[in-house]
Every structure is written in structure tokens, then in C-alpha cells.
From TrEMBL:
PANTHER family: GANGLIOSIDE INDUCED DIFFERENTIATION ASSOCIATED PROTEIN 2-RELATED, MACRO DOMAIN-CONTAINING PROTEIN. It comes from the Bacteria. This is Appr-1-p processing domain protein. It comes from Sunxiuqinia dokdonensis. InterPro entries: Macro_dom, Macro_dom-like.
């Protein structure tokens, strides 16, 4: 599937229509990729986020990108891993799905995702990658709207996992 790309690096440097933020339900910032995005975007991003009244797990909301080189930020909330028996896989799939639906609704053609929930939220990386890739893959198979969806991985472990799965898919 050549509309899916793998990139290793800092998502805040990406020149795409939208980057996705792995946020928390408050949407008021935090550590990890969320902290990096707010740092680069500047304080106006937090001002806009304050007006959004938070976001449920598995849902997504959109803001402008301010000082970031992308055009928009899609803030989604992945699940906190509690062992996998309370719906975490479906919630993670929903975070990817909701982000893509919102991007399409705003007519955005290129989107970059971080590895949602695999940092502070402790979702197992292999399973998270399988869910992320299959959810995006299924969306692209049934809908030709998007030009390019990039998985922006940060750490070497996730890079290896994504490379292997994407190479299997051909
Ligand atoms: N660019 C791309 N990926 C990054 C970057 C970056 N600059 N920095 C970290 N990552 P995490 P979560 C990767 O913890 O698990 C925050 O405090 C990182 O290596 O950012 O969904 C929020 O406010 C990891 O693979 O998000 C929430 O409270 C991935 O991003 C909570 O953390 C996700 O790690 C969300 O936890």
C-alpha cells in the first residue's frame, strides 16, 4: 500500500496537512509528543485547546497549528493500557479512525500519526502497531480521499516493528 509511509523522526517538523497529537482527555497539554507539539506550536495552541472542552478516549478534535510547519493539529486520545481486557484495542483503533474521519471532513490530504498510546499510556508496541496499520490500511482500501498517511515513529523499537509489518503487507 504505497499511500502508507514510514518515517522516523520528530513529528513537529513534518510539513503535512495535519499531524495527530497523542493527547489526554483534558487537551491541555502534557509530556511526550503532546508536550513537544505544544512547545513548538506556541501558547496560542493551548488557548484554542482550552475552548474545546476536552475529548473522550477514542475521539478526535482539530485545531490550527500556529508555529508548527503543518497546517492543522488533530488531537486524539488513545487508551491507557490496563491489561487489554477493558476495550483498549477497540479504543486505539477508534482514535486512528476518528482522526482520519476528521481529517477527511476538513479536506486534508496528508496526515502523520505518532505511535498513539505507546509511551506514557503503556500500550504494548507490537499490538499497537498492528492496530494502527490495519485501521489505516482498511480506511484507505475503502476510501481514496487521502494522498499519504505517514506513521511517524520516534524510537528504534517502534521503527523495527513498523518496518517488519509494513514489509509483510507489501
Ligand atoms: N515526535 C514523534 N513521536 C514522538 C515524539 C515526537 N516529538 N515524542 C515522543 N514521541 P506519548 P501516549 C513518541 O507518551 O502514550 C502525554 O503526557 C513516543 O516515543 O507521547 O499516547 C499526553 O498529554 C511514543 O512512541 O503518548 C497524555 O497524558 C509515542 O510518541 C499521555 O502522554 C506516544 O507516546 C499520552 O500518552
Amino acid at each position: 500500500m504505497n499511500r502508507i509511509q514510514l518515517y522516523q523522526g520528530d513529528i513537529t517538523e513534518m510539513h503535512v496537512d495535519a499531524i495527530v497529537n497523542a493527547a489526554n482527555k483534558s487537551l491541555l497539554g502534557g509530556g511526550g509528543v503532546d508536550g513537544a507539539i505544544h512547545r513548538v506550536a506556541g501558547p496560542k495552541l493551548l488557548e484554542e485547546c482550552k475552548k474545546l472542552n476536552g475529548c473522550e478516549t477514542g475521539q478526535a478534535k482539530i485545531t490550527l497549528a500556529y508555529r508548527l510547519p503543518c497546517r492543522f493539529v488533530i488531537h486524539t486520545v488513545g487508551p491507557v493500557w490496563h491489561g487489554g481486557q477493558i476495550g483498549e484495542p477497540a479504543q486505539l483503533a477508534s482514535a486512528y479512525q476518528s482522526s482520519l474521519q476528521l481529517a477527511k471532513k476538513h479536506q486534508l490530504k496528508t496526515v502523520a500519526f505518532p505511535n498513539i498510546s505507546t509511551g506514557v499510556y503503556a500500550f504494548p508496541k507490537q499490538q499497537a502497531a498492528e492496530i494502527a496499520i490495519s485501521t489505516v490500511h482498511n480506511f484507505l482500501e475503502t476510501d481514496d480521499w487521502f494522498e499519504e498517511i505517514t506513521f511517524c515513529v520516534y524510537d528504534d523499537e517502534n521503527y523495527g516493528i513498523y518496518e517488519e509489518i509494513l514489509n509483510q503487507d507489501g
